[in-house]
Amino acid sequence: MKKLSQMLVFGVAAAATLFTTLAPAEAGHRHWHNRDRGDAVALGVLGLAAGAIIGGAIADSNNNRRVYIDPAPTYYPPQPTYYPPAPSYQPAFRPAPVYHPAPAYHPAPVYRPVVSQGYQPWSPAWYDYCSRRYRSFDPSSGTFVGYDGQERFCVAN
Questions:
Q1: What is the spatial distance between Cα 123 and Cα 131, in angstroms, rounded to a whole number?
Q2: Which among 75, 92, 101, 145 could disulfide-bond with 136, CB atoms 3.0 to 4.6 Å apart, if both were Cys?
Q3: Within 10 A of 78 (CB to CB), how many other CB atoms are there?
């Protein structure tokens, strides 16, 4: 029965909230100019009071349940415990450790790929390479003029 009454109150509250938003906003061809609004204020106060009463009744309805609370645990102080003294240890003399030298590891040989040395200077292939690469190449001296104006020897890598 209590559950039914709670559901009924919640249903009425929800319906009242919903229906107030569905009312048309119309002045009915009358311009009140903010006069005689005492009815609206009175209805607002009545609605607020009704909401407070219903809300208080709903909030108070859950406080009638019985709740079991565990009793506080009883504290028993621990019994004193006797620990015998630790045995006296005599130093044990051991022989000095023997350290063996670490094994010597030689690094693995490094294998490098064979890089061609390019063209040998003064060979016909070297002449062809340098004359194609540098427009300022001078075959008689084997030099070219760089962008900085310095003469450099042509090295074909």
A1: 12
A2: 145
A3: 5
